[in-house]
Specification:
mainly alpha, 10 helices, 240 residues
Length: 240
């Protein structure tokens, strides 16, 4: 697929904006409230790292800026000057923050995911209004419900294989992928499981993660980017 000047400009703009927001990821991570333990809970053998400690990790700001910029830039190259890019760029730094937290703690905090639903929903509706295309909002709603229902079913069948935080995150990703297109949604979800399975196996062999408990959130987020980048090509090949 040829990339025109407008797409290059949109990609560059998305890269700059997302990178600037990505540099704030350490502050966002540090601001997440710590979960309050139940009164009868015993101290865990391996307590998780504090969010403030994770946020203070050396080099996190520039690494998050690079990750956010590259991801948003690639999506901008594909979509060009399209209002559907707005929710994607806004959500990218949040996704990087969630990936960092999940990688360090194997937890996806509701305190960060819940506001993401509101942010994404508002921006998807805004994109639909600005484009004067209600199908954008309808696809976002369908994507939200479909992805959430699918992950909820997997969690219900085998709760040990997936954390409920992944289920919560799936709804946000389903909404932002669905508003782009159904092919984008399908490719994004499929890619998450493919790279999650292969990547998780490789990381467990290298003993970087525990094969019985590894963070799936980062793979879901990478899969979402792949969905946006590859989704239009899949749709075109299928004649959608």
């Amino acid at each position: 697929m040829a990339i025109d000047a407008g797409q290059w400009q949109a990609g560059l703009a998305a890269l700059v904006v997302a990178a600037a927001l990505g540099a704030l990821v350490p502050r966002l991570v540090a601001a997440v409230p710590e979960p309050e333990p139940a009164p009868d809970d015993e101290p865990p053998e391996n307590p998780k790292r504090l969010y403030a400690e994770i946020g203070a990790s050396p080099g996190l700001a520039w690494k998050a800026a690079v990750a956010s910029g590259v991801a948003a830039g690639l999506m901008g190259l594909v979509l060009g000057w399209d209002w559907r890019l707005l929710p994607l760029v806004a959500l990218t730094p949040v996704g990087v923050a969630l990936a960092v937290i999940d990688w360090q703690t194997t937890l996806l905090p509701t305190r960060l995911i819940a506001p993401s639903y509101v942010l994404t929903g508002v921006l998807v509706l805004l994109a639909a209004v600005l484009m004067q295309d209600r199908d954008v909002a309808i696809r976002g709603l369908v994507g939200w419900l479909a992805a959430f229902a699918f992950f909820l079913l997997l969690w219900f069948i085998y709760p040990r294989g997936m954390g409920y935080g992944d289920v919560r995150l799936s709804g946000v990703l389903g909404m932002v992928l669905g508003q782009v297109g159904y092919a984008t949604l399908l490719v994004g979800i499929y890619a998450a499981f493919v790279i999650g399975g292969v990547g998780g196996l490789l990381l467990s062999v290298l003993r970087i993660v525990d094969r019985k408990r590894f963070p799936f959130g980062p793979f879901m987020l990478v899969g979402a980017v792949i969905g946006v980048v590859a989704g239009p090509g899949v749709a075109e090949s299928l004649g959608w």
